[in-house]
Design brief:
It is built from 17 helices and no strands. It is an all-alpha fold and 389 residues long. This is DUF418 domain-containing protein.
Length: 389
């Protein structure tokens, strides 16, 4: 579980760093300063292989960890609902601070709000949860189809030239004073709320429910031994997901509603294929090293998620190195890999001396309304209560 979460964190960062490095992606246009074939190829690969894929995986893992939190509350003799409400509030506060200070594309606030719906449904039967998940996802797809077919994006979206002007101005703002940077983050709140309400929130809830059912059935406990199933998931997932991702990128990615529809439909297949491949790798005779590398990052995923945004501020903003608008798409991918590699080493070193990451510690204090006790590491590993959701 921790290794899969670490893998998801890498995929999310490859996408997020493009938004941290420039205001052009947020305005749905490409930076004309980077228009070589290599730049276009890098954008294509990120859109086809990463965009809208790893968010789904992270959401599934949130739902899975939700059940682990239920089990932990039961073992502690604590009432689950108040505990989870405090956890959601703590996550929302962390997310709000994340938006204002570090990165406007936060997902923590969305998770915190949608978690309330999951909490309201946490006693439903598996069949009901799966049916509800399917209905929600179908509704999202239908709404996208109707929007693509009936609505003229030009009515509520700026022209390409206007978007370029806005993106250039906002990129300069990213190089300004701390007040200007905070203003830039806050200025995207309206779009963040719209996106969360129309797409990210509903799809997250659908994945939360799937993750909850998967945890009830202890899917990740036995999945490594089901080689035939994993192979089928790979064959079907890659066969559907890779062409879908390529079509999404070729159609313009987020700039095209039809392209977004294609991605929403096909991304779960590619995500499932990624997970199946990773699990098979980790259960291969040589795969223990993969788990060893990824697990520490995933175990303190909340700290690392926030840390990635902190790195973004240091690298790209005016209060750091001021590289906004100066790094090409291929170098951004390389930079994401380098930063993640550093996180792998730092996470492993931190967990040799500490039980929780800094953000996990704060969230746990808020959740339990008490300072975590000095239990043994063996108890932590047994209870799974340390895992970030």
């Amino acid at each position: 579980m921790d290794a899969v979460r670490g893998f998801a964190l890498l995929g999310i960062f490859v996408v997020n760093i493009t938004f941290m490095a420039s205001a052009y992606p947020g305005n749905l246009v490409d930076d004309p300063s980077f228009s070589t074939p290599i730049d276009d190829a890098a954008r294509f690969l990120v859109a086809a292989l990463f965009s809208m894929k790893f968010y789904l995986l992270f959401s599934l893992l949130f739902g899975y960890s939700f059940v682990l939190q239920m089990d932990a509350a039961e073992r502690a003799g604590a009432s689950f609902a108040p505990r989870m409400l405090r956890r959601s509030l703590g996550l929302f506060l962390l997310g709000a601070g994340h938006i204002v200070l570090l990165y406007g594309g936060d997902v923590l606030t969305t998770y915190a709000v949608v978690c309330l719906a999951l909490l309201a449904m946490h006693r439903v039967r598996d069949r009901t949860a799966l049916l509800t998940s399917g209905v929600i996802y179908a509704f999202v797809v239908l709404s996208l189809v109707v929007s693509a077919a009936l609505l003229d994006r030009s009515m509520f979206m700026p022209s390409h030239d206007d978007a370029l002007v806005t993106a250039a101005a906002q990129t300069q703002t990213m190089l300004g004073s701390p007040v200007e940077i905070v203003g830039h983050h806050v200025s995207g709140l309206e779009l963040l709320v719209i996106q969360a309400a129309s797409l990210q929130g509903p799809t997250a809830l659908a994945m939360f429910l799937l993750g909850m059912v998967a945890a009830r059935r202890k899917l990740f406990t036995t999945l490594g031994n089901r080689t035939a199933l994993l192979q089928r998931v790979q064959w079907v997932g890659f066969a559907v997901g890779l062409p879908g991702g390529a079509l999404f990128a070729l159609m313009g990615g987020d700039t095209n509603t039809w392209a977004t529809t294609v991605s929403v439909v096909t991304a779960p297949f590619l995500t499932a294929a990624y997970v199946a491949t990773l699990i098979r790798m980790m259960h291969a005779p040589w795969g223990a090293c993969v788990r060893t590398v990824l697990a520490p990052v995933g175990r303190i995923a909340l700290t690392n998620y926030l840390g990635q945004s902190l790195v973004g501020i240091i690298l790209f903003s005016g209060i750091g190195l001021g590289l906004a608008g100066r790094v090409s798409p291929p170098l951004l991918v390389l930079l994401a890999l380098v930063v993640f590699a550093v996180q792998v080493m730092v996470s492993a070193g931190w967990l040799r001396r500490h039980r929780y990451g800094p953000a996990e510690y704060l969230l746990r204090c808020f959740t339990n309304w008490s300072r975590p006790g000095a239990d043994s590491r063996a108890l932590v590993c047994h209870s799974h209560d340390h895992r970030h959701d």
